[in-house]
Design a protein that fits this description.
The protein is of the alpha/beta class and 402 residues long. It folds into 2 domains: 183 residues, Rossmann fold (3-Layer(aba) Sandwich); 201 residues, Dehydroquinate synthase-like - alpha domain (Dehydroquinate synthase-like, alpha domain). The protein is built from 16 helices and 14 strands. The chain is globular and about 60 Å long.
Amino acid sequence: MQTDTLHHWYGPSRFVIGAGCVGELEPIAKDAEISHVLLITSQSVAADSEIINPIIDGLGSLDVTVFDEVSIKKELETVLAAVDLIESSSIDGIVSVGGGSTVDVARAVSAVAVTDDDPTTLFADVGDDGEIEFSDIPSASLPVIAIPTTLSGAEVTCAAGMNIGDPDQGSRRVRNAPMISPDLWPEAIFYDPKIAARTPDSVLGPSAMNGLDHGIEMLYSRNGSAFTDATATQGIRLFNESIPNLLGDSQNIDTLERAMTGVALSTLGLIDPTTGAKYSVIHAFGHQLAQRYDVHQGQVHGIVAPTVLDYIFDNIETNQAQLAEALGCATKKDSQTAIVNRVRELRNALSLPSELRTLDAIERNDFPELAEAIRNDIGIQFGPSGLTPTTAEIEGILDSAW
């Protein structure tokens, strides 16, 4: 938690949580002066009538055009295709239906659609020291309403990350710094567990690990505050209670609603244009492995989080007591061991892999280069004060997680 002057940015999003809440879309969209919606989603979500029909019904009298070209690649070309559709119509607002990739594309579309500038100039410039120089995002960005189908929490931020190809890298995707601006916060976020219940366990599980790690990392980020500590702690509590029954036959709407409330709280303040981001070391591993290999970031988080937490707790004093309390293990004598074991239990409850070696795409010979990339990842810059992991230490974490 910060010890100097406290700044806390409270975003403008309206949170709507509850089973069937997408039935309330029309009046909230009209409040945002939306009359013609571009519904941005993926082909798989668009083909699921039990997701799309309630949303279309909830939009009532509004005109709706569906754009279903989003993929996990989050390529800038997808954004430009959606913008072409907007420019040829009367679309004046966006509804995103999907996970983190979908809402990122939606936010990028909302900014690119109202400017004639080169879209790559809208991305923030991140310096080697972790300082972010924000780009001038058009304040007239189209309003976005987010309807998440996963538990990644991406919708709660004001950032839109894209993958932009680099000719010097051949076909390899290059993760750019995101667009970051208060104008990219959604007008409203609808957490409807009936919609999320349609998401396969293979997608919901990794996303829940992502959402949980937002809260965990918030508690030891150098950019954290009393505000983010409070919301993250309650978010972790709700995840701790809901994850054991989140997947499979034990899943129910009440459990999903608690998990969705948990991700909203765990992620609130994660990316703040005033004080900076609060994701850190675990996310640095997730960013770099997911960028280089065909793996889900949540899978990587599940594997490395226990080892990373052990490393952090061994090297600095941090918010162990609050994290132990949130994870229900505050009464244990050895809080470090209890926290790490509970994170492993939650990972296992989400049916995630426990070793990097089980992810076929990853090569152990890549570890030296990968460790250097992780050390330079922006997430390390947002980690606990006083923590400066070396390339050798990061490679040791990778070896332990192998």
